[in-house]
Amino acid sequence: MKKIPMKIVLVFFISLVFCNDDKKYSLIPNLPEVGTKIKYHYVEEIYFELPGKGRFEHISEFDNTTEFMGEKDGFYILKLTRTNMVVDQRIGTLEDKPYDYLAMEDAPCLLYINSDGWDDHVVPVNPDDEYLQEVFEAAYIDDRGSTNFYYPFGKEAVNLSIGDSWHVFEDSVRMYINTDSPESWVTQSTTFTLKNIKMKKGKEIAVIDIKSDLTMEMNLLLYIFGERIFLTGNTTGTVDAKVQVYRSDGRHKVTEYGDLFGEMEMDGEKFKTKFTIRNFHKRVK
User: Fold this and answer.
1) Residue 138, number of CB atoms within 10 A of its CB
2) How many H-runs (helices) and E-runs (strands) does the chain carry?
3) What is the dihedral of CA 98, 53, 232, 7, to 10 degrees?
4) Which of 158, 223, 260, 261 could bond 275 through an S-S bridge, CB–CB 3.0 to 4.6 Å?
């Protein structure tokens, strides 16, 4: 199962541009060189209550290696490999392993980025991994929670001073929460703030705070111990993130957290619940 709101996964190189005597910054990435590899460690968590069943918990930990493969036929191509996967998924005190998701461990795929900077399609590198197609799609595409390849912080992230804020609004964005679920729809207003430029081991790091207010028409289908559970309803909430990116060579770490509240329906019964999201990403190589 994927986490529900934002994924910040495609930032490679952030150029911090100085203008005139005053320091001004641009957070528009430069393209990496072909063959560039970056490895991140991820911890992603989601929690919510299911009436009569208990607390649903999904904690996923893994490493993800991204290699820039260059451009072909109008697409930029990324080679993605997820390794060291550990998942703790349970309802109440009973553990339920998502074996279809875990099957993608060590299986590389190619993610194609289209001309507008969004994920277009994904294909397995090895023909023997074709059965993982839907799992790759759920992990890497089929939503606009993914960061835009060209504008990870929006087109307005130019000529910035420390303390500047800018805004991005997205309406009726389609998302698929997991491979089994029908489409959900999100409207979100995001405020970015360049909080600071700091030094670490001689390198400049930009610190960006991100606050997203969102409304989601959520449709979530789960299979727990073979039982089909379908949740539908409207949720609203806020997701906050702090992103640190090196001036010269990409993202350093991301901390993201948020709560979504709403009235859901399951088996004809309505109930109120809270979805709690916690995510942490850190560059390890």
Assistant:
1) 22
2) 2, 14
3) -40
4) 260
Compute the Cα dihedral for 223, 144, 130, 64 and give only its sign.
negative
How many angstroms separate the CA atoms of 60 and 125, rounded? 23
**CA nearest neighbour of 25 among 194, 170, 244, 192:** 194
CB atoms inside a 10 Å sphere around CB 181: 20
Is 148 a domain residue? yes
CATH number at residue 151: 2.30.230
User: pTM value?
Assistant: 0.85
Burial 87-122 (b: 16+ CB within 10 A, else e): bebbbeeeebebebbbebeebbbbbbbeeebbbebb
Secondary structure (H, E, C), 25-86? ECCCEECCCCCCEEEEEEEEEEEEEECCCEEEEEEEEEEEEEEEEEEECCEEEEEEEEEEEE
Name residue, tokens 């850190």: 282
Total structural domains within the chain: 1
Rounded average pLDDT per 10-residue block, the chain, 285 residues: 40 50 77 89 92 90 94 94 94 85 95 88 96 88 65 88 92 77 88 89 85 92 83 94 74 86 92 92 86
How far is the C-alpha of 123 from the C-alpha of 132, rounded, in Å? Answer: 9
